[in-house]
Amino acid sequence: MKISRSQLWQNLRDEANHFSDKEELLAPYFHEHVLKHSSLEQALAALIADKLVSTNVPRIRLQNEIEKIFESEEIRILIKKDLLAITTRDPASRGIVEPFLYYKGFHALEAYRVSHVLWHKRRFALASYIHGRVTEVFAVDIHPAAKIGGGIFIDHATGVVIGETAHIGDDVSLLHGVTLGGTGKEHGDRHPKVGNGVLIGAGTKILGNVRIGDGSKIGAGSVVLNHVPPHSTVVGVPARVVGHPKTKNPALSMDQSFDSKDQAFLSYTASML
């Protein structure tokens, strides 16, 4: 979807006004979190600060720190891509204001982006605070040092874990319960590298410094311990290649089904257990 940032913000405001008029009880809520702000980034900074504030951490100072990071053009582009990823891939999403206000996968991801910038500025204490609060509030654990591209959709989000040296490319979709973790107590580069356009099903565990090729699809509940070739469909425990996705970027279509060849392989595998 091609839309300017200013148009995205105007659409968000229009929806907030619509629902504010339609549901009088929520009018102050929409005003506080959308309508009183002057930009998408300012509104998001205030929203994240409200969710992550805790005792002895002043909310307004936390909001100011987040706003400073959101002044970066690079971060602003990522925020826009992430928000649009939800509206174009999630059939349950009704417009923009709903995912903006309520989708914790989006909130956790944008809070991670703040912690990531802080981490690279060597402000480890504040980065770790945000990381810890995201884990507590959203049940999503993304290490500040992980590298994550744009256009990311974390659906449902609960139980997602992304390790310190994990890399995720652009336009990736992953569902709840996904782990990009290590295999033990090894040090150094020890977490998965996920290519562009990859779809990772619910409950999948990808462990170790393995590479998931561009355009791959990982079936729900799989345990991936080896490299996955580009544009492959893998499933199982341990995961094996069972075919190829129907589209170049399965993350965009969110199609988690298997074709007839894949089903035949899965039936054969089940009979051997």
Core attributes:
single chain; 273 residues; alpha/beta; serine acetyltransferase, domain 1; UDP N-Acetylglucosamine Acyltransferase, domain 1; 2 domains; five-stranded parallel β-sheet; 10 helices; 15 strands; globular
Briefly characterize the structure.
The protein is α/β, with parallel strands linked by helices and 273 residues long. It has helices at residues 5-22, 27-35, 40-52, 59-70, 73-89, 97-102, 104-120, 124-138, 250-253, 260-272; strands spanning 141-142, 147-148, 153-155, 161-162, 167-168, 173-175, 179-181, 193-194, 199-200, 205-207, 211-212, 217-218, 223-224, 233-236, 239-243. The termini are far apart.
3D structure, described in words:
This protein has 273 residues and is α/β, with parallel strands linked by helices. The chain has helices spanning 5-22, 27-35, 40-52, 59-70, 73-89, 97-102, 104-120, 124-138, 250-253, 260-272, and strands at residues 141-142, 147-148, 153-155, 161-162, 167-168, 173-175, 179-181, 193-194, 199-200, 205-207, 211-212, 217-218, 223-224, 233-236, 239-243. The protein has ten helices and 15 strands. Helix 1 packs antiparallel against helix 2, helix 3 runs antiparallel to helix 4 and helix 5 (73-89) runs antiparallel to helix 7. The longest helix is centred in the N-terminal third of the chain and has 18 residues, at 5-22. It is globular, with a radius of gyration of 19 Å.
